Amino acid sequence: MKNSFIWADLSTFDLAAAKQFYRRCFGWKFQDIGNQYLLCQAKREPVAGLYPMPKKFQRIKMPSFWMSYIQVQDIQAIAERAPKLGGKVEVKPEAAPGGGAITLIRDPLGAGFTCYEGEAFATQNTVQLQGQRAWHELHISDLESVKEFYTQLFNWEIRSTKEGDRHEIYSDGKLIAGIRVTSNEIKGDKEYWGVYFAVENLDAAYQSVEKAGGQVVAEDKVGDRPALLAYDSQGAAFYLIETKKESGATKHSEKSQFKWRASLGLFFVTLAIILNLNWVWGILFLLWVIPDIQSGSTYFFELVECRENPIIYWLIMVMWIALSIYFFFI
């Protein structure tokens, strides 16, 4: 659908590290389509892209960032009209990886997005599954400063919601994205388009981000769907949003107040030390190794992925299992 969001990609400093991080978080697989541009696949469907940050961006000290793509009918016309509406064309129309053309534009307050003419990246997931792109939302401090820009440039309709700080964007009568009006104290001093990825379980996703070297920094909400704002291991911001409405952020907040599993583990460790119960150590080592086998990755002084270092990975797994057996029988 034209004038709608169809893609997102990440400009990153370390491509190998980014692959490791997002593989652990979403289970993505990757396909190189040339020029170091990687297609990220979830459930065998392309959902996003990864590429090394261009040197021209590095020279001006741009951070690693996720970029939202809007499909358009005539990219030249868009690039010519945007400055007349108060925007800025950062990158003039040029060939895109995989075909088509792109141009990078900033709105009057500086939020950047990419316009795309073509079909190669025209992916719109009607069913949101683990790791798929689920939503785009503009986080901005002043809606009135950009409202005319977007409505005139893309013929969008911006509607208010019952939440005073949230607005919805419609294109040809279909809901395609959102706008969140927030102060700089909450969102920082940048205006930006946030990219949201679907996860089946927000609590599990929280743990995956932290374990992979990222950081969850805030809870969010899109309508009645809970979400989290996170940074990857290189500082790029992205959002996690649950696929089901009923498992809300309230549940996540309650769990974050008291870590009963960690507390129970500490209790058993203390008990094992006091009573010299070696079999407890065997259980703990086994509980440690099972999630790592399920995820295909472990952390032993550094991140080790089964797909990339299978020998080292399985040696570590065998070591934990052997220690578990040892403590069961001594």
What does it look like?
It contains ten helices and 18 strands. The strands form three sheets. The protein has an eight-stranded mixed sheet, covered by helices on one side. The chain is α+β, with helices and mostly antiparallel strands and 330 residues long. α8 packs antiparallel against α9 and α9 runs antiparallel to α10. It has two domains: 250 residues, Roll (2,3-Dihydroxybiphenyl 1,2-Dioxygenase, domain 1); 70 residues, no CATH class. About 4% of the residues have low confidence.
CATH class bucket of the largest domain: Alpha Beta
Specify the structural class.
alpha+beta
Helix content: 25-40%
Order of helices and strands: EHEEEHEHEEEEHEEEHEHEEEHHHEEH
Structural shape? elongated
Mean pLDDT: 86
Based on CA atoms alone, the radius of gyration comes out at: 23 Å
The total count of helices amounts to 10
> What do we call the CATH topology of the largest domain?
2,3-Dihydroxybiphenyl 1,2-Dioxygenase, domain 1
CATH level-two architecture of the largest domain: Roll
- Please report which band the strand proportion falls in: under 5%, 5-15%, 15-25%, 25-35%, 35-45% or over 45%: 25-35%
Low-confidence residue ranges:
245-256
Provide keyphrases for this structure.
alpha+beta; elongated; 18 strands; 8-stranded mixed sheet
Any chance you could write out the topology, listing elements then pairs?
Blueprint: E1 4-12, H1 15-26, E2 29-32, E3 38-42, E4 45-52, H2 55-59, E5 65-71, H3 75-81, E6 88-95, E7 101-106, E8 112-117, E9 133-140, H4 144-154, E10 157-160, E11 166-171, E12 174-181, H5 184-187, E13 192-199, H6 202-211, E14 215-222, E15 225-231, E16 237-242, H7 249-257, H8 260-275, H9 278-295, E17 297-299, E18 303-305, H10 310-329
Parallel strand pairs: 1-4, 5-8, 9-12, 13-16
Antiparallel strand pairs: 1-5, 2-3, 3-4, 6-7, 7-8, 9-13, 10-11, 11-12, 14-15, 15-16, 17-18
